[in-house]
Amino acid sequence: MRGLLGFWIGWRFYRARQANGFISFISFASTVGIALGVAVLIILLSAMNGFERELEQRFLGVVPHGELIGAAKPLHRWPDIVKSAMVIPGIEGAAPFIRIEGLVQKPGGFQGLAVTGIDTRLEPDVSVIRDYMTPAAWDSLATDSNNIVLGESLAAKLGLKTGDLLSLYVPSVSHGEARRLRSAKSHRFVVSGTFKLGGELEQTNAYIPMAYAAKLLDMGDAVTGVRIKTTNVFQAPALIRELGFKQDQYLYMSDWTRTQGHLYQDIQLVRVVMYLVLALVIAVACFNIVSTLVMAVRDKAAEIAILMTMGVRRTAIMTIFVVQGALNGVLGCLLGGAAGMLVARNLSAIARTVEQLFSVKLLAGDIYFIDFLPSRLESADVVIVLSMAMFMSLVATIYPALKASRILPAQALSGR
Q: How many CA atoms lie within 13 A of 65 on its CB side?
């Protein structure tokens, strides 16, 4: 029982009404500060996790993990590249593509458009774009006709709907030894459907049948390149190089870290900066615990002296004030953790509600790679945040507890 005396008295001191209302206010402020810091940190970490998930599953599900593109001429022996890719551990799929870049006219000017000719039999091995189209739109790409599937937001911007005609202005390039740029040609396509992916990909990409793209460019059986999908996106650079070095023709080797890697780096940078800033916010709130306990020590100096004269050890005195400060930290962590997890689980819905109420767009699709606020709550983040906050709270109690244990009973009682 004697070993638990410090904990019991600390709990009684914590529950007791302070004679000094200012001490109570600072104690309340420290608890609220810890709770707010913990809640905001959990919410923002969940948002960063959501961005990473959307980058990997949505954005990199459509953007190829890697590409091998013919350097001097189109690839005629692309089936050999596909076969050699599938024997490399870590590569999940490979599919050919034909890329056409051109301009489409929109109100007020022109807009660049990257049109990709795909083979619907092999494309699902490297991309999940099929999941964002209607079955009719996907089936229209299995023909050799002039069908085109646009991003939903691009179709809306151009004022097009299914069945309308679209003119694409493409520069004409000769594929001989001397590559020459000729006057642009206009090609007409029939809008056979749209895909809804969100973000900038909807604004700048479109899909057509690969057979028609080859006919359009007079490429025969050749393709622009081969797209690769890897099991681990972070291994893509090494796997693409391994595959490329096995080929006997000049190729351009590219992977997502070169074309889209800045997105991942930006997310990680924001995560680190945010972690540091909010950790400092929690630290400031913990300094309020120091102030609270220092004033509590002065306020209860006489009671501490009486306890010492009754034989209570100095370690027990320290325990009393460590318990008081730790309870502030525990309460702040519990409140902040509960609020943070509740908001993080419903962050996307809350963001949509805010957008509807105030008629604002938090993430613009033509700027960011997604047009909504994602969230993914991970238990590891919650544990780390709560542990950090509790550790800071305990550290904040050390100085006041030492100060209380060093009170001299005779001086404290005579000063009363």
A: 27
Q: Is 35 exposed, middle or buried (0-12, 13-18, 19+ CB in 10 A)?
A: buried
Q: Give me the residues paired with residue 114 across strands.
A: 101, 205
- List the Cα angle 276/382/44 in 5-degree steps: 50
Angle between the N-to-C axes of helices 314-345 and 261-299, in degrees from 0 to 180, rounded to the nearest 10: 140
CB 323 within 8 A of CB 23: no
Identify the burial level of 40 via C-beta atoms within 10 angstroms of its C-beta, where 0-12 means exposed, 13-18 middle and 19 or more buried: buried
Q: Do residues 49 and 376 make contact, with C-beta atoms less than 8 angstroms apart?
A: yes
CB 366 within 8 A of CB 203: yes
Give pLDDT tens digits for 136-150: 999 999 998 999 999
**Do residues 299 and 19 touch, judged by C-beta distance below 8 A?**
yes
Sequential DSSP letters for 85-144: HHTSTTEEEEEEEEEEEEEEEETTEEEEEEEEEE-TTTGGGT--GGGGB-HHHHHHTTSS
pLDDT digits (tens, 9 = 90+) for 311-330: 788 888 888 888 888 888 89
In this model, does residue 252 exceed pLDDT 50?
Answer: yes
For residues 262-282, give the mean pLDDT. 86
First-residue to last-residue Cα distance in the chain: 30
Nearest to 314 by CA among 246, 404, 187, 197: 404
